[in-house]
Amino acid sequence: MTDSTTDQTAVVVITGASSGIGEATAQRFASSGARVFNLDRQPPANPAPGVIWRECDVTDPVMVRSVVEGIAAEKGRIDTAIANAGISTRHAFLEMKPEAIRRLLDINLFGVINLWQSAGRIMFEAGSGTLLATASTNGSAGYPWYSDYNASKAGVLALCRSVALELAPRVRTACVSPGYVLTPMQRSEYTDEMLAEVNEKIPMGRHSDPSEIAEAFFFLASENASFITGQQLVVDGGELAGGTASSFRTQ
Ligand code: NAD
Q1: Which pLDDT belongs to residue 235?
Q2: CB of 202 within 8 A of CB of 244?
Q3: How far does residue 95's CA lie from ligand 1's centre (Å)?
Q4: pLDDT 10s digits, 167-208
Q5: Within 13 A of 240's CA, how many CA atoms are on the CB side?
């Protein structure tokens, strides 16, 4: 039996890792030997070795706290917590329903707050840890049809800066801001024609693969990023550099 008080194996908690970016990121950490816990409301379609699923809805602060504290009690530590779960809906600002906006903010913004508070308390007391989140290029530039989503991601970036100041030097915070990533979320909202149109406007000429976003998280959690806090790492194939994809206005 492993003694959790002396076991130095890194413990990583990540939300929304049953699909897409989270799934690839959980697998990246697991392949490095970390113990990875996927907090998702749904089980993974393809369970990965080394990644343990715990049913959790990130909008419920009591549930998030209970799951996170249970993992910390079992493993004796939490080194990295990645708030990744998110949703997006393509809809016109003037047509948005208040319930839909609240639901999105509850998952995309409160979901980050819920995980960061629960894991942050444990890390702060332990004296070290890294709080990470998936923001988006949409938090830094305007994009039509996603104004509520964009506001949620700008909120995550603002949270990241302020929490960094409160928790330094014990706990670091950082966000990865992906541009267009080919995941189930993206696939469900775009037709083949829309995907091709976006690809043409991205300097790298394509969407990114979720594994490329996973590498950014792996770097930010590592000792190589020990002086990075309160910042975002943009992984967008050059999209924000030229403002090209932001002019995309297909109806
Ligand atoms: P995805 O739909 O493939 O995966 C999202 C996961 O989050 C799913 O497993 C889902 O079950 C889970 N989830 C949703 N609501 C939840 C809740 N209330 N509680 C627990 N789990 C919940 O999406 P993805 O494209 O991998 O997106 C992951 C993150 O990346 C999101 O925050 C998204 O905004 C962000 N992002 C995506 C892109 C992109 O192009 N795909 C670009 C920038 C940022």
Answers
A1: 98
A2: yes
A3: 23
A4: 999 999 999 999 999 988 778 878 899 899 989 989 999 999
A5: 16
Residue 246 falls within a domain, yes or no? no
CATH number of the domain that residue 162 is part of: 3.40.50.720
Nearest CA to ligand 1 atom 4: 19
pLDDT at 247: 57
Q: What is the pLDDT of residue 5?
A: 58
CA of 136 to the centre of ligand 1 (A): 11
Domain count, the chain: 1
Q: Determine, yes or no, domain membership for 35.
A: yes
Dig out the tokens for 182 from the structure.
């080919």
Quick check: is 250 in a domain?
no
Q: What is the pLDDT of residues 127-182, one digit of tens each?
A: 999 999 999 999 999 999 999 999 999 999 999 999 999 999 999 999 999 999 99
Question: How far apart are alpha carbons 243 and 224 in whole angstroms?
Answer: 30
Ligand 1 centroid–CA 154 distance in Å is 16
Q: Domain residues for 166?
A: 11-241
**Ligand 1 atom showing the smallest separation from residue 184 Cα:** 3
Asked whether residue 92 is assigned to any structural domain, the reply reads yes
The atom of ligand 1 lying closest to the CA of 44 is 9
Helices (H), 137-227: 147-167, 184-189, 192-201, 210-221
Q: Which residues line ligand 1 (CB under 6 A)?
A: 15-16, 18-22, 40-42, 56-59, 84-88, 107, 134, 136, 178, 180-181, 183-186
Nearest-atom number in ligand 1 for the CA of 207 is 40
CA–CA gap between residue 79 and residue 102 (Å, rounded): 31
